[in-house]
Amino acid sequence: MFIDYARIRVKGGRGGNGCLSFRREKYVPFGGPNGGDGGKGGNVIAIGDKNLNTLLYYKYKKHFSGGKAHHGQGSNKTGQSGKDTKLRVPLGTEIFELNQDGKRIVKLTDISNHNEEMILVKGGNGGRGNAAFATPTNQAPRKVEEGLPGEERYLELVLKLIADVGLVGFPNAGKSTLISHISSAHPKIADYEFTTLEPCLGVVKVDIKNTFIIADIPGIIEGAHLGKGLGIQFIKHIERTKILLFLIDVNSKDILKKYEILKNELHLYSQELDRRKFLIVLNKIDILSNDVKQKKIEEIKMNFPKEIKKNIISISAVTGENISKLKNRVQQILQEKD
Fold it and tell me: Which domains does the chain have, with CATH numbers?
């Protein structure tokens, strides 16, 4: 199950108490204090894991604590520190701190690399034993400190997939068919809307040396930025992509308007997406006869502004027509300097 959102509570481990102890040795009646300090409580740490792709674990387990430290001991022995608790998360996970009302206060981190670590909460310090309080005027102190509680935070985890290319389009535009044709991914494919109910990542092999990662997200409809259809639940997964592919059925009415709707929905969600490089991919050209295919494609291009026409490619995700051309064009754009 793909889960890209979770809320959890994390708490550092409590520090150990200081020890009240005095030397008790034969022939040393006044050996003095030797109570050791308590250990430090364990931290809670987030760590990136390239082998994970969902926050499913945090859907069912909500509370995490660092290990409790041991108390100090006699003979000036410091208590053992509590064990750290490590929360493994997928790459692309953003972590936000929440206030008591459940609203975001600050973004703590964005885990993007394998084994990247971030301390979410620190464990409490250990209390001092009575040996720490000895002075020339108080050589037998009976004072000790209790260990301190660890930090506590409420957190929000948000997963945004890391991919080079984001595939967007209306429901039933053929996105799942395309990604299954050009990569090893196998999303569900059927002839009805909203077949894809969760994002899908695929690795596309261009040639021996070059590959790129493509993300297929569920179909967008007008008003998606407001939550209509599958809404903004999945649009966030294309925020990290370098290129956007607008996949449109070549047999649709008013293709320019469909492109503008898709573009506008992304703009209303985040104006940062306006700066992404893009291609308009006209799919299902296999349905057109050879006699009218090229003519129709040229007619469609005529409706687009001059600067956009060069970004239009026609393909068939079913037969594979022009798929190699599409992959090479995407690789070329990825290699371009910004």
Answer: 5-159 (2.70.210.12), 165-335 (3.40.50.300)
